[in-house]
Amino acid sequence: MEISELDRKFNIIDGDTPINEHLSAHYKRSFAHYTVKDRLPVILTRIIDSLSREKEAIIAGYGEEAADDLKDVIGNISKLKYELQTDKKFKLLDGNDTDQEEWNAFLEALPDTHNSYFSAVWLHAECYMYRRVRSMFEETTTLREFDYFRRQKKDAFMGSLEAFQQLTEKFNEKRMVKTRDELRGLFRQLMRVNLWGNRIDLSISGGKIVSQCGDPFEALGNLEEYILADDTAAVWDCIATTDGNIIVDFVCDNAGYELFTDLCLADFLISHNLAAKVRFHVKMIPWFVSDVTPEDFRWTLDALKLSVTATLRDLGCRLSNYIETGHFELIEGEYFWTSPRDFCEMESVKPSVHRMLQQAHLVIFKGDLNYRKLLGDIKWDPTVPFVEAIRTFRPTNLCSLRTVKADWWRDCHQDVLKSSQRRIPSGWRVVNTVLFSLHSNRAALSGL
Ligand SMILES: O=P(O)(O)OC[C@H]1O[C@](O)(CO)[C@@H](O)[C@@H]1O
C-alpha cells in the first residue's frame, strides 16, 4: 500500500503539530508520527527478538512451562504490532494488575476520535503500547515477574563501568570541598553530569545498547554550549538556603548510567548535609525500555558493592548504607508513574502521590517523558514560560532535568539559540540539546 493511501486511511495530516495542540502521530511531520510509525514497531520487534534469543535461558530460569508462555507472548506482541501499524482502536486491558482498573477507566473515557495509535495524544499512544506489553506477561503463568528489558539494562550498565569509575574518582577527589563556593561549584558540575546522563536512553536508541564512554567530567566543557536553559543557580539557592533538614525527591528515568548520576547527586546532597533524605520514585513495570524499576535500583546498588574496583565497592557500600540509615528511600508500589496521565491531573486522580511530593522541598523530574508529562504533551508556543506550561501543577519546588529527544522543541531551540547567539553545529542532532528548568512555588524562576 502506498504511504499516501495509508495516510488517507488513517486520516493523517501532512504537516507539523500546530501550536497549542497535543502532540500526536496524527501529524505526519512530527516526531510523534515518526515514533508511532517507525520507532515503536522496532521496539516491539526487538522484544520479540530478545525473547527468541534468550528462550533457553528463560526456560532454564522459569521452568518448562515458560516455553508455552513465551510462544503466547511472542504471538501477542506480533498482534499488537499489527494493531499499531493498522491504527486499530485501543482495547481495554485484561489481567489483574493493580493499575488495570484505572487504565481501563481512562481508556473508556477517551473520545472516539482519539483512541487509536495515530489519532490519540502521543503520550497516551506511547504509554498504552508499553502497558499492553506488560499485560501480556502478566497473563502468563510463569513470566509475570519477568523483565523483558533487563538484559539490555544490565548490558548498558556494564558498558558504562569505566565512566562510573572515572566519575567516582573525580568525585572522590572533590568530596573534601569545604567552602560554600566550592560546594556550589561541585553542585553545578554534578547537575551537568546528571543532565547529560539523560542522553543514555535505550528507548531512543530503539533498544540498541548505548553506554557512557569517556570521562564524564572532562566532557562537560565541550557540552556547555548545548545547554539551552540553565537554572542551576536557582536550584542551588533553593537547597542551600535551608537548614538541610529537607527531603529531595528524584522522579527517576533511565537505569544504568543515568541512575548512577542520580545516585552521585543524591550522595552529594546527603554527604554535605544539604538534605536529610533523598527519595527515589521508580516505575513498577518495565517501561520505555530502560526506565528504573525497584529491581533495577536494588540490582545497581548490589552490582556496585560487588564491583572489581575498591572505588566502586566503597561507593556501593556507602549508598546501600544510606538506604539502611533512611537517608535514601526507594519509593515503590506507585503505578501513577506508568499511567498515561499528565502531572496536572495528579492532584485529582492520585492525590496521595501529590501529597507525597508536597513533603519534599524539591522534586527533580528526570528525562524527556517526565518533561512531556509536566507540559501535558502540548506543543506550547516556544515563548510560553515553563511555569505557565506546567499549568496548575504546584506540589513544591520543581526542577526538570532532561536532554531534548523530540522535535517540538526544535523551533524553540533555534529561537533560544538565535537570541543567545549560539548555534547548533552541523551534524549535531536535536537529541543532544538540552532544556533544564526549575520552577519555584514562590516565583517563576525560569522558562524558555
Ligand atoms: O528517557 P526519557 O528521557 O524519558 O526519554 C524517552 C523518550 O523520549 C522520547 O523519544 C521523546 O519524548 C520518547 O519517545 C522516548 O522514548
Automatic annotation (TrEMBL):
Catalytic activity, reaction form: L-glutamyl-[protein] + S-adenosyl-L-methionine = [protein]-L-glutamate 5-O-methyl ester + S-adenosyl-L-homocysteine; beta-D-fructose 1-phosphate + H2O = D-fructose + phosphate; beta-D-fructose 6-phosphate = dihydroxyacetone + D-glyceraldehyde 3-phosphate
Organism field: Lutzomyia longipalpis (Sand fly)
Gene Ontology cellular component terms for the protein in this record: nucleus
UniProt note: domains: Subfamily III proteins have a conserved RTxK motif about 40-50 residues from the C-terminus; the threonine may be replaced by serine or cysteine.
Alphabetized UniProt keyword annotations: Hydrolase, Manganese, Metal-binding, Methyltransferase, Nickel, Transferase
A Pfam family of this chain: ARMT1-like_dom
Cofactor (UniProt): Mn(2+); Ni(2+)
InterPro entries in UniProt: ARMT-1-like_metal-bd_sf, ARMT1, ARMT1-like_metal-bd
All copies of domain Damage-control phosphatase ARMT1-like metal-binding, residue ranges: 35-408
Biological process annotations from GO: DNA damage response; intracellular phosphate ion homeostasis; methylation
Name used for this protein in its record: Sugar phosphate phosphatase
Gene3D superfamilies: 1.20.930.60, Uncharacterised protein PF01937, DUF89, domain 3 (3.40.50.10880)
Record-level Gene Ontology MF annotations: fructose 6-phosphate aldolase activity; fructose-1-phosphatase activity; metal ion binding; protein-glutamate O-methyltransferase activity; pyrophosphatase activity
EC code(s) of this entry: 2.1.1.-, 3.1.3.-
Entry keyword annotation includes Nucleus: no
